């Protein structure tokens, strides 16, 4: 028996939403049986119509807090964190109670996405950036990305005049030595480079895509590469996992990923995976949802995801979904709508990890496997009957990265092309409920949690998380989800995203064709 | 990305906002102008400061300041001038952090300035700043990162930093960041000072601390996470150790010298304390450690035998994970032809030295040498009448004519290794004492129907039993009944985590059944009537109808050749890879969902008869419980070869990938796979093609 006590397996964490009491015992049984034993404590399959009608939180109504404070050991003395938590839970449950008590037609309206309002809010935001996109801060490409990606998820696009202005503005942010800065004249920065490239891909026009100077960009990426294997945000800037992801994401999507960029990166990211299971921003820090996504996505893009302790990682992420139905970013923090994407997206990636390994079998035909053959151990089979598998148990993921450059960049493509039969690793309906009811602002836009203000950042990541959840049951990239996988009216269905880059999938395909046929 | 300031979507007053924007624009233009023209005057720096005060996210401004500082201090020796310049930088960071305490640029600028070491750092000031910021937001990870940076720069002892985390926990014990930092610091401290006395006193104190948190409020998560970490430190067996082997110490292996190499033969066990070998001329030696180790090879393990020189042996890890570490290692000994004639006995000695190379994942190594010996007797196979060539008959799992008889049980199964335990005594006593204190405490709280308490109690009891087992051999599984009850309670109390509890329960149950001689006898069925079945004169371990969901206690089962795990709820067979002697395996009527969930079976080279009928194979192609399956990608097989091989025969390699990978690794003579929901239409053809040795498929003779 193993002596390891994985925190991952603990049922502590956050109590999973319990299911409503009036469910039939068989459906409860089915659900419980479906929950993965060694990974997530959340069900991984088996959405039933019953669970659709009574979404998970509704039973929480009868239990204001998941675990009442003890009564025997003196009067309960909740901590500050807990008071805040109770406060949020109360607000969230109030909303769910309203949903629960409403008649079906009202309920349907409550769960609707207010598309027009959102598009109005977003478009206005873009226009308010000013007629000439005056430089006001260091995050302009981000604001462009948050807004334009959100609009594209809602199935709309900019009018061509506005689109041209965005392209023109981003061109002015492009540094003559490569990379994009937060605004014209500023220094190039990896995060804004990621935002600018994703924005241009989302716009998708020939003009937008060809405005990216790839030769210079790859030079910029090389300049940002640190001797530790990680990346720096900008010249003289900080090193962290975020920098690693943005660099690799951009290089991958633009087909400029090379061995030099990958070298040592896996080791750095590995050193950031904590004993909790998630990934921290820098070695020594605690696990964090945003960095976990960045670390996992980067590892997948450089074909070294297998080096992470994935079961532990998945458990840590899955247990960050709480009774509020949304995700928290770190242990014992409050729920926040933006983690719908950072955490939900990590699980969407994990869900497809088998296919990425599989897809490699094809690309490895050209030489990847050959490289690995050299590092298999020197065991010679004792007898014909023994399996060759034994001798090679895991040596060299690093070696595998030394494939042909084109193939490395194509990992993102084969990743999404693969068929996945695995259900979501989180409660996707519950997450949709949180986003639609607790994050959605009826006047347009999305927010962190009830009581907070809407903004473009949360709009972008709530919508991205919503899209991830809606498609979490459809294994093939070109098959639309079943109605029961989409909470609310089916018209709620958003565009599908590519979870490694967080750009909408159609736009990604277009960009892929463009950058891989150059 | 998260944590960056967002533009206020609704400026309260348009006029104010416009003025603000104009001011900002002005400052920005100035900055860029100064930056491009390398103007580093006082005025220029002041404008830059103003900009950063309003918007700390302008990273160009931070870089400009770095260049300015370097430029302005170039060749300056006046300490006051240096001091004033550095202080300016520190001040602007403080101002910026007031605007945005999560500004990456600001935090990094401060680190950069301090790293220059232009003047002796005023650590007081740094810690005051940190106090302020971590009071305002106790979970600000920039702050915690910076604290680690400063502590490192000042070479503050870990003990001092521990005091700080204690202070933060006292203020608010649900501050998970403080707990986390505490666990990180303590890990270092315990690594540095490996004296047991020290560990003992340190951990005892920590238990006191975490109890206060746990029992003040049971529903706050932070303390529970820390408690788990602490428990891990307590029960963590630092040094890897051999805990089981096959052949067992003192056993006599009777090796048949049949020439029929290709046919698999079941062994006879009619003679106590002897085994007959399955595959002629080759037999495995299996080592099972208490934790995964790497670097098991001919220099760390010495096998002295008349058959083969130690240097020629290759040890391989038995692990389905993609790793060079494993609990279980195997090597195969081949008996040279010249030794095969006549009947003689050969002693074999296996010894593991105290070896710094055989290390576990936490870097500790085998500190205590261990060794075991056994005898191999070679016999002409014709003298053994019991050997069955299994392929000639379809194996049916039928116990009608079987019985459990004590005398047929191998007597050596329970003394896998006689390890002298003197060296662990001291550690163990404290560990056990600590565990029993904790058990007592949690038993007191167990009447509250708190799943946290119940689960923790169950874990404590399991750990306690493991430690007992490690120490004395005398009190086996003394708490297993209590643990099983706790898990039953938990399934009712917390049905949404049922799958998890079932897994835990399975491991405990398997341990209970296999580590105790009397209960094992009840599970061993002996077929003594020659007419009864294919298994005549064989013993079969029958672990069916137990609601098992996963495999445990593998160390007790290394000897098993016939194993019946049917009518359970197994979702995965991970662990079976260690059972290198298995010939017949019954997994029918379980919940296996995919071929990848059967991955472990691929390394079982002697497996001939496999029953996986009535499972859920192919209902889901991918085992969602495991994410690291071997694949062409993990370089365990040559993907190119497979695809070339099968593509020309027009088989859809892509669609049947996992089937092909699975079947081609096996050497079955009999396969039962009926009753699985959604097998591919052409599975039958594929199976016949991929398994050239297959004679029986779903009860039908095919060759």
From TrEMBL, chain A:
<dbReference type="Pfam" id="PF00432">
    <property type="entry name" value="Prenyltrans"/>
</dbReference>
<keyword id="KW-0677">Repeat</keyword>
<dbReference type="InterPro" id="IPR008930">
    <property type="entry name" value="Terpenoid_cyclase/PrenylTrfase"/>
</dbReference>
<feature type="compositionally biased region" description="Basic residues">
    <location>
        <begin position="1"/>
        <end position="22"/>
    </location>
</feature>
<keyword id="KW-0637">Prenyltransferase</keyword>
<dbReference type="InterPro" id="IPR026872">
    <property type="entry name" value="FTB"/>
</dbReference>
<comment type="subunit">
    <text>Heterodimer of FTA and FTB.</text>
</comment>
<keyword id="KW-0808">Transferase</keyword>
<keyword id="KW-0479">Metal-binding</keyword>
<feature type="compositionally biased region" description="Polar residues">
    <location>
        <begin position="36"/>
        <end position="47"/>
    </location>
</feature>
<dbReference type="InterPro" id="IPR045089">
    <property type="entry name" value="PGGT1B-like"/>
</dbReference>
<feature type="region of interest" description="Disordered">
    <location>
        <begin position="1"/>
        <end position="80"/>
    </location>
</feature>
<comment type="similarity">
    <text>Belongs to the protein prenyltransferase subunit beta family.</text>
</comment>
<dbReference type="GO" id="GO:0005965">
    <property type="term" value="C:protein farnesyltransferase complex"/>
</dbReference>
<comment type="function">
    <text>Catalyzes the transfer of a farnesyl moiety from farnesyl diphosphate to a cysteine at the fourth position from the C-terminus of several proteins. The beta subunit is responsible for peptide-binding.</text>
</comment>
<feature type="compositionally biased region" description="Pro residues">
    <location>
        <begin position="65"/>
        <end position="78"/>
    </location>
</feature>
<protein>
    <recommendedName>
        <fullName>Protein farnesyltransferase subunit beta</fullName>
        <ecNumber>2.5.1.58</ecNumber>
    </recommendedName>
</protein>
<dbReference type="GO" id="GO:0008270">
    <property type="term" value="F:zinc ion binding"/>
</dbReference>
<dbReference type="GO" id="GO:0004660">
    <property type="term" value="F:protein farnesyltransferase activity"/>
</dbReference>
<dbReference type="GO" id="GO:0097354">
    <property type="term" value="P:prenylation"/>
</dbReference>
<keyword id="KW-0862">Zinc</keyword>
<dbReference type="InterPro" id="IPR001330">
    <property type="entry name" value="Prenyltrans"/>
</dbReference>
From TrEMBL, chain B:
<dbReference type="Pfam" id="PF13516">
    <property type="entry name" value="LRR_6"/>
</dbReference>
<dbReference type="GO" id="GO:0004663">
    <property type="term" value="F:Rab geranylgeranyltransferase activity"/>
</dbReference>
<keyword id="KW-0637">Prenyltransferase</keyword>
<keyword id="KW-0808">Transferase</keyword>
<comment type="similarity">
    <text>Belongs to the protein prenyltransferase subunit alpha family.</text>
</comment>
<dbReference type="InterPro" id="IPR002088">
    <property type="entry name" value="Prenyl_trans_a"/>
</dbReference>
<dbReference type="GO" id="GO:0005968">
    <property type="term" value="C:Rab-protein geranylgeranyltransferase complex"/>
</dbReference>
<dbReference type="Pfam" id="PF01239">
    <property type="entry name" value="PPTA"/>
</dbReference>
<dbReference type="InterPro" id="IPR032675">
    <property type="entry name" value="LRR_dom_sf"/>
</dbReference>
<protein>
    <recommendedName>
        <fullName>Geranylgeranyl transferase type-2 subunit alpha</fullName>
        <ecNumber>2.5.1.60</ecNumber>
    </recommendedName>
</protein>
<dbReference type="GO" id="GO:0097354">
    <property type="term" value="P:prenylation"/>
</dbReference>
<dbReference type="InterPro" id="IPR001611">
    <property type="entry name" value="Leu-rich_rpt"/>
</dbReference>
<comment type="function">
    <text>Catalyzes the transfer of a geranyl-geranyl moiety from geranyl-geranyl pyrophosphate to cysteines occuring in specific C-terminal amino acid sequences.</text>
</comment>
<keyword id="KW-0677">Repeat</keyword>
């Amino acid at each position: 028996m193993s002596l390891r006590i994985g925190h991952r397996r603990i049922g502590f964490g956050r109590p999973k939403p319990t299911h409503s009491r009036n469910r039939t015992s068989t459906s409860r049984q089915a659900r419980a049986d479906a929950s993965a034993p060694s990974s997530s404590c959340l069900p991984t399959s088996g959405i039933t119509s019953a669970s659709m009608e009574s979404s998970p939180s509704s039973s929480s109504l009868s239990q204001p807090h998941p675990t009442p404070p003890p009564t025997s050991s003196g009067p309960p003395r909740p901590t500050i964190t807990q008071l805040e938590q109770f406060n949020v839970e109360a607000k969230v449950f109030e909303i769910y109670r309203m949903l629960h008590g409403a008649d079906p037609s009202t309920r349907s309206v409550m769960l609707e996405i207010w598309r027009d309002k959102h598009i109005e809010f977003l478009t206005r935001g873009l226009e308010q950036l000013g007629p000439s996109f005056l430089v006001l801060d260091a995050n302009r490409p981000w604001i462009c990305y948050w807004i334009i990606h959100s609009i594209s998820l809602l199935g709309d696009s900019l009018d061509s005049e506005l689109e041209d202005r965005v392209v023109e503005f981003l061109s002015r942010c492009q540094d003559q030595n490569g990379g994009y800065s937060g605004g014209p004249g500023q220094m190039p920065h990896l995060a804004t480079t990621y935002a600018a490239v994703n924005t241009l891909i989302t716009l998708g026009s020939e003009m937008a895509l060809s405005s990216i100077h790839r030769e210079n960009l790859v030079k910029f990426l090389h300049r940002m590469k640190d001797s530790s294997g990680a990346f720096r945000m900008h010249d003289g800037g900080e090193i962290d996992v975020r920098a690693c992801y943005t660099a690799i994401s951009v290089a991958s999507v633009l087909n400029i990923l090379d061995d030099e960029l990958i070298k040592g990166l896996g080791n750095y990211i590995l050193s950031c995976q904590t004993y909790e299971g998630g990934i921290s921003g820098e070695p020594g820090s605690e696990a964090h949802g945003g960095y976990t996504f960045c670390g996992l996505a980067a590892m997948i893009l450089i074909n070294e995801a297998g080096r992470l302790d994935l079961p532990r990682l998945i458990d840590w992420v899955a247990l960050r979904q709480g009774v509020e139905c949304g995700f928290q970013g770190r242990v014992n923090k409050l729920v926040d709508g933006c983690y719908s994407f950072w955490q939900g997206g990590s699980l969407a990636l994990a869900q497809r990890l088998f296919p990425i390994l599989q897809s490699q079998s094809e690309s490895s035909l050209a030489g990847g496997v050959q490289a690995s053959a050299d590092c298999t151990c020197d065991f010679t089979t004792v007898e014909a009957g023994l399996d060759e598998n034994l001798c090679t148990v895991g040596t060299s993921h690093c070696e595998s990265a030394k494939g042909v450059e084109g193939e490395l960049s194509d990992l993102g493509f084969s990743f999404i092309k693969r068929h996945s039969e695995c259900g979501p690793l989180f409660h996707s309906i519950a997450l949709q409920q949180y986003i639609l009811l607790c994050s959605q602002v009826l006047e347009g836009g999305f927010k962190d949690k009830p009581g907070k203000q809407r903004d473009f950042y949360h709009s972008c990541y709530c919508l991205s998380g919503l899209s991830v959840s809606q498609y979490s049951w459809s294994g093939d990239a070109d098959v639309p989800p079943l109605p029961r996988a989409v909470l609310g009216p089916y018209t709620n269905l958003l565009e599908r995203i590519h979870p490694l880059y967080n750009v909408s999938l159609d736009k990604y395909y277009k960009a892929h064709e463009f950058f891989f046929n150059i | 990305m998260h944590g960056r300031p967002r533009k206020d979507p609704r400026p309260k007053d348009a006029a104010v906002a416009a003025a603000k924007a104009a001011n900002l624009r002005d400052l920005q233009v100035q900055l860029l102008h100064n930056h491009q023209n390398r103007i580093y005057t006082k005025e220029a720096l002041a404008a830059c400061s103003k900009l950063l005060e309003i918007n700390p996210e302008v990273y160009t401004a931070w870089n400009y300041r770095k260049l300015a500082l370097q430029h302005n201090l170039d060749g300056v020796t006046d300490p006051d001038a240096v001091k004033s310049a550095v202080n300016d930088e520190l001040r602007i960071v403080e101002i910026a952090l007031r605007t945005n305490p999560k500004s990456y640029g600001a935090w990094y600028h401060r680190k950069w300035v301090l790293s220059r070491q232009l003047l002796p750092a005023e650590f007081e000031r740094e810690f005051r700043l940190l106090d302020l910021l971590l009071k305002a937001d106790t979970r600000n990870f920039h702050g915690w990162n910076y604290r680690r940076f400063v502590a490192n720069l000042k070479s503050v002892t870990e003990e001092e930093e521990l005091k700080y985390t204690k202070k933060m926990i006292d203020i608010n014990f649900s501050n998970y960041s403080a707990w986390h930092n505490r666990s990180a610091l303590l890990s270092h401290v315990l690594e540095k000072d490996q004296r047991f006395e020290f560990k003992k006193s340190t951990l005892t104190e920590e238990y006191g601390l975490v109890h206060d948190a746990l029992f003040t409020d049971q529903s706050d998560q932070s303390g529970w996470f820390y408690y788990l970490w602490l428990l891990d430190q307590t029960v963590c067996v630092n040094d890897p150790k051999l805990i089981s082997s096959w052949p067992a110490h003192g056993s006599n292996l009777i090796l048949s010298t049949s020439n029929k190499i290709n046919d698999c033969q079941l062994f006879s066990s009619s003679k106590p304390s002897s085994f007959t070998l399955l595959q002629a001329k080759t037999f495995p030696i299996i080592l099972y450690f208490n934790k995964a180790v790497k670097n098991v090879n001919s220099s760390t393990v010495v096998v002295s035998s008349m058959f083969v020189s130690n240097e020629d042996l290759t040890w391989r890890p038995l692990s389905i994970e993609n790793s060079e570490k494993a609990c279980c290692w195997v090597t195969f000994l081949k008996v040279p032809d010249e030794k095969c004639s006549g009947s003689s006995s050969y002693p074999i000695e296996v010894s593991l030295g105290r070896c710094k190379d055989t290390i576990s994942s936490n870097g500790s190594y085998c500190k205590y040498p261990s060794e075991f010996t056994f005898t191999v007797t070679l016999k002409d196979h014709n003298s053994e009448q019991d050997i069955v060539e299994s392929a000639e008959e379809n194996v049916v799992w039928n116990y009608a004519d079987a019985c459990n008889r004590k005398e047929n049980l191998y007597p050596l199964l329970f003394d896998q290794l006689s390890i002298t335990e003197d060296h662990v005594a001291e550690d163990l006593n404290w560990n056990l004492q600590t565990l029993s204190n904790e058990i007592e405490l949690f038993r007191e709280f167990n009447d509250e129907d708190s799943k946290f308490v119940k689960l923790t109690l169950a874990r404590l009891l399991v750990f306690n039993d493991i430690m007992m087992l490690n120490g004395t051999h005398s009190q086996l599984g003394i708490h297993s009944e209590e643990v099983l009850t706790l898990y039953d309670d938990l399934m009712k109390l917390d049905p949404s985590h049922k799958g998890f509890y079932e897994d835990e329960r399975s491991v405990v149950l398997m341990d209970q059944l296999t580590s105790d001689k009397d209960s094992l006898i009840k599970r061993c069925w002996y077929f003594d009537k020659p007419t009864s079945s294919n298994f005549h004169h064989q013993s079969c371990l029958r672990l069916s109808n137990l609601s098992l969901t996963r495999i445990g206690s593998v160390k007790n089962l290394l000897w098993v050749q016939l194993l019946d795990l049917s009518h359970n709820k197994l979702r995965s067979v991970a662990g079976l890879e260690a059972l290198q002697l298995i010939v017949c395996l019954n997994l029918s009527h379980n919940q296996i969902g995919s071929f990848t969930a059967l991955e472990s079976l691929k390394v079982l080279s002697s497996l001939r008869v496999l029953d996986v009928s009535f499972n859920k194979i192919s209902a889901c192609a991918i085992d969602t419980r495991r994410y690291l399956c071997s694949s062409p990608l993990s370089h365990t097989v040559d993907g190119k070869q497979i695809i070339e091989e099968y593509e020309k025969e027009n088989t859809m390699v892509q669609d049947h990938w996992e089937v092909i990978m699975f079947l081609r690794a096996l050497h079955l003579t009999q396969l039962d796979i009926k009753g699985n929901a959604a097998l591919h239409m052409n599975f039958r053809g594929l199976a016949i093609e991929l398994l050239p040795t297959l004679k029986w498929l779903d009860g039908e003779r095919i060759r």
